[in-house]
Amino acid sequence: MAVDHKDIATLTPLFLNTVYKHFKNEVPDSNWDLKLHLGIIMLKSFLERSKHKTIEKQQKSLGKAYLPSGLSTLITKATIPETCRSQAEDIMAGLLSGQEEKVGWRWKEDPMKQNPLKGEWVESKTRKKFTNADRVILFIHGGAYFMGSAAQHRFLIQKVAKAGAARAFSFDYRLAPQSPFPAALVDTLAAYFYLTQPPADAGFEPISPKNIIIMGDSAGGGLALSTLLVLRDACLPQPAGAACWSPWVDLFHSLPSIFSNHATDYVPNGFVHKASPANPIKDYTNINDRLSRVQYYAFNSALTIPYVSPILAEDLGGLGEIFITCGNCERLRDESILFAHKAAKTHPNIFNVPRREGQRAYPPSKVSLNVFEAMPHVFQLFIFHPAAINAVKRTGDWIRKVIPEPVANDNKSDFDFPHRSFSCHSSASSASSASSHRSHNSYSSQHNHDVPIISPPSPTKITEEHTFSYEDEIDDEFSMFTNKHIDVKGNCRQTNYMLDEGTLREWISMLGKLPDFTKHPEFLEIKKI
Predict the structure, then answer these.
(1) Which residue of 34, 150, 158, 388 shows the fewest CB atoms closer than 10 Å?
(2) Three-state SS for 69?
(3) What percent of the chain has pLDDT over 90?
(4) Peptide bond before 198: cis, by omega within 30 degrees of 0?
(5) pLDDT digits (tens, 9 = 90+) for 138-158
């Protein structure tokens, strides 16, 4: 990756100044060591300097950047056939029927589809020596939907795959703004179909959904949860679960931490770039121009669609098992916490959706929420830090738990999902259901059984601090919501903490609306480069 000389000129004095401030105890969070402090400040400055680059230039440079894999890691390239993408398009067309104007463009005519959908398998060469389970992680890279690649995230993918005794498949979905919503979601769905219904020459047998974990970081975490919603709404078999690191689920930036945690995170005040053919914002110094397209990923009219902002879905139940990790100091913290509560329906009087004629009601999703003290957005990137190492281990342990070792003489069908199935009867999904059943007739409707609503545990709140070692933690197998607050050394210092009803109601009232930027002018402030 070529390094811009302007970046070097800016980052060098910043590096020295950060070291000086650290030893003067001028640190945004007292728990940061020098390496973490430097990493966060340098990454934040690098992202803010995107203002003097075009989107195309940044995509090209970051797309080529990656750390070499170790000799113990096997990388196998793959191409997802267009038939998988066509099936995914049919399903999305059904789910988005009637919302074409909100989507804002003729997405099925995207010229970027001319480029093949590439992916790669990442696997430890010794994996089969340590497990008999065929665990597969479908990993979706982050990058605010407009940058990044599978290769760039390979250093993280190989670590979590090893921790989970799994092999991983990652892919390069189409990036915004050249290909806005639903292009990335269509490509993610196509990758899922590639695993479950591979072509004859793929080199592997069809993988049972119950052996798949969909995983992603940041925008990739949001895509993972959007994919769960699509599979649920289209009445298709769901994976064993989803693991999300700092998922981006609210594209309105509605909640308080987007402002309150600005000083302790590297996420900038929006991503803006120089004018270019791909950039929908022609003058980033013009506030009205910027507000006309808040996100590269989607037109403003599409931000309310739940497949864009998953937290806006009326009902987040019926999504199976979800593992969420976020940092207490990150700007997207509140949306991770609220999503977890809403999906698990921790407060039935707030989150239970009344059953209406023609609509489905879903049981609570089983959610494990892990909030790491003093950590920024996707802190696993700073893999040298003990908290990052611990977070990878916790994710791997959860993957092993959700997809356990096979039991001898287990005669269950590969496509049996008794604990994650539900009946689909609403007219809203009829078009997508018909399309999905035509395209995916290998999945029998015999697995769609009615599941009774499961009452979540009574809300509890720990008022005194408790300290638990990682090894001593015990998850309640039947609890639909588990929350852990983890310190910088990896110890769980507080567990099963639930937000009070008043805070949850206040946050819910903020959703679906852009913040009042007159109260936060710094969010749209343009720094001179």
Answers:
(1) 34
(2) coil
(3) 68
(4) no
(5) 999 999 999 999 999 999 999
Q: What does 179-240 look like in DSSP terms, one character per residue?
A: S-TTHHHHHHHHHHHHHHS--TTSSSPPPPGGGEEEEEETHHHHHHHHHHHHHHHTT----S
CATH numbers and ranges of domains, the chain: 61-352+361-402 (3.40.50.1820)
Q: Please give the structure tokens belonging to residue 406.
A: 């096979």
Count Cβ atoms below 10 Å from residue 335 Cβ, excluding itself.
29
Name the packing angle between helices 219-233 and 183-196 (round to 10°): 70
Residue 382 C-alpha from the chain's centroid: 18
317-326, 342-351, 391-400, 421-430: range with lowest mean pLDDT: 421-430
Query: What pTM, to 2 d.p., does this model score?
Result: 0.88
In terms of Cβ atoms closer than 10 Å to its own Cβ (0-12, 13-18, 19+), residue 185 is buried
Cα–Cα distance, 31 to 375 (Å, whole number): 9
Which CA distances in Å does 280 have to 290, 300, 392?
A: 9, 12, 37
Q: Are 460 and 495 in contact (CB under 8 A)?
A: no
The answer on pLDDT for 457 being more than 60 is no
